[in-house]
Design a protein that fits this description.
This protein is α/β, with parallel strands linked by helices and about 375 residues long. Helix content is about 45%, strand content about 15%. It is built from 16 helices and eleven strands. A seven-stranded parallel β-sheet has the order 4-3-2-1-5-6-7, sandwiched between helices. A four-stranded mixed β-sheet has the order 9-8-10-11, covered by helices on one side. Helix 5 runs parallel beside helix 10, helix 13 packs antiparallel against helix 14 and helix 14 runs antiparallel to helix 15. The mean pLDDT is about 95. Bound molecules: NADP nicotinamide-adenine-dinucleotide phosphate. NADP nicotinamide-adenine-dinucleotide phosphate (NAP) binds next to helix 1 and helix 9.
Length: about 375
């Protein structure tokens, strides 16, 4: 009997990669639910190919949508559909939170690409999994790498994680040039092809700050034991250091299809011919550098928000979402992304406030969005 899968954000980069994986694994999995936000045409194409029981379009309008669910509630409906065992959350940003919580409370596995969910409400999300019997399995390649290294080990054996970062397109640029970088330059990622928001987050290194917070919640390690190293080739995706000093790394040519497949089949591995086989000679020299924090101020702000805890990570995430959107709309320069985040986080009146209620988290999120807009526009 095949396993039912819901894909939230099926029209995005992660969603499309998931469908490519599923196309090779039709005996094991079937698509039960698909959701998109605005791309009605692609969603209709996917619907014709996969014939899912449920299709939802958040921002529904136009023709050819009879029978589709519309509005934000379609996300929770898809995530809790009775025939769904695994929910792949490929939504970008805070919009994915409610569906993650609902899926975990309903006892589903959430294959989580939507890292913003764990950043803004890590305590709530992990509690929902505990209470509902659901399970969070990371899709992010770095966290998938770590999971592959620690699978089968006791949590107490893990001493430290090292997440790798490509360094993005501006790794070798001077600060003056970076501050004036254009949208096209920020979207030219050296090793990965992804959606726009995460590509900009990779250029600011906010993505890595989000991933440090994600790792803290996934692997129950304090922040002093989650390190980051720049690795421009993106071949090693993560390291796990154990209490005896031994270190394991997971590697492969950059592709999201492998971490997606692993999140679907974990803890098992299944045969798959879809990804390029590893060749050490083709991979060439692998290099590692320390993060030059003066080049990536937003990364530093994110790590500090992590240390403060409570609702500070939610505020950091929300301010970043606003700043990135404004940058993509060419309303602010690249250099102002970090400034907007810093001021929106610094002007927090309930810094480190309680993050154990959804109300508090959503209030912090809304407050930081409002402040970020105010800061950006004056
Ligand atoms: N892409 C990668 O390789 C990669 C790797 C690791 C982690 N991630 C994480 O995965 C998530 C998705 O990234 P992506 O690169 O796939 O982004 P993307 O290509 O921009 O796709 C985003 C998806 O979310 C939908 N969406 C956008 N806003 C929404 C909203 N308010 N409510 C519901 N759905 C919404 C979009 O629908 P429409 O297209 O129909 O508008 C699309 O299906 C992010 O959290 C990212 O950090 C991505």
């Amino acid at each position: 009997m095949s396993v039912g899968v819901a894909i939230l954000g099926s029209t995005g980069s992660i969603g499309r990669s998931t469908l490519q994986v599923l196309a090779r694994q039709r005996e094991r999995f079937r698509v039960v639910a698909l959701t998109g936000h605005s791309n009605a045409d692609l969603l209709a194409e996917q619907e014709r190919e996969w014939r899912p029981a449920f299709v939802g379009l958040v921002n529904g309008n136009g023709k050819g949508e009879a029978g589709r669910r519309k509005g934000t509630s379609c996300l929770v409906e898809a995530a809790t559909h009775p025939d769904v065992k695994i929910v792949v959350n490929g939504i970008v940003g805070a919009a994915g939170l409610e569906a993650t919580l609902a899926a975990l409370r309903a006892g589903k596995r959430v294959a989580l690409a939507n890292k913003e969910t764990l950043v803004m409400a890590g305590e709530l999300v992990t509690a929902a999994a505990r209470e509902g019997g659901g399970e969070i399995v990371p899709v992010d390649s770095e966290h998938s790498a770590v999971l592959q290294c620690v699978a089968g080990r006791r949590p107490t054996e893990l001493a430290r994680l090292i997440l790798t970062a490509s360094g993005g397109p501006f790794r070798t640029w001077g600060p003056e040039r970076v501050s004036r970088a254009t949208v096209a330059e920020a979207l030219k990622h050296p090793t990965w092809t992804m959606g726009k928001k995460i590509t900009v987050d990779s250029a600011t290194l906010v993505n890595k700050a989000l991933e440090v917070i994600e790792a803290h919640f996934l692997f129950a390690l304090d922040y002093d034991h989650v390190d980051v190293v720049i690795h421009p080739q993106s071949i090693v995706h993560g390291f796990a250091e154990f209490v005896d000093g031994s270190v394991l790394a997971q590697m492969g040519f950059p592709t999201m299809e492998l971490p997606i497949l692993y999140a679907l089949t974990y803890p098992d591995r299944v045969p798959d011919q879809g990804v390029r086989r590893f060749d050490p000679v083709a991979a060439g020299s692998l290099t590692f550098e320390a993060v030059q924090v003066d080049r990536f101020p937003a990364y530093v702000i994110g790590r500090e928000a992590a240390r403060v805890g409570g609702t500070a990570p939610a505020r950091f995430n929300a301010a970043n979402e606003v700043a990135v959107q404004l940058f993509l709309e060419e309303k602010i320069h690249f250099g102002r992304i970090a400034e907007v985040i810093e001021r929106a986080v610094a002007e927090d009146t309930h810094s480190g406030g309680d993050a154990n209620s959804l109300e508090d988290v959503l209030r912090a999120d809304a407050d930081a969005r409002r402040l970020a807009l105010e800061v950006a526009c004056c």
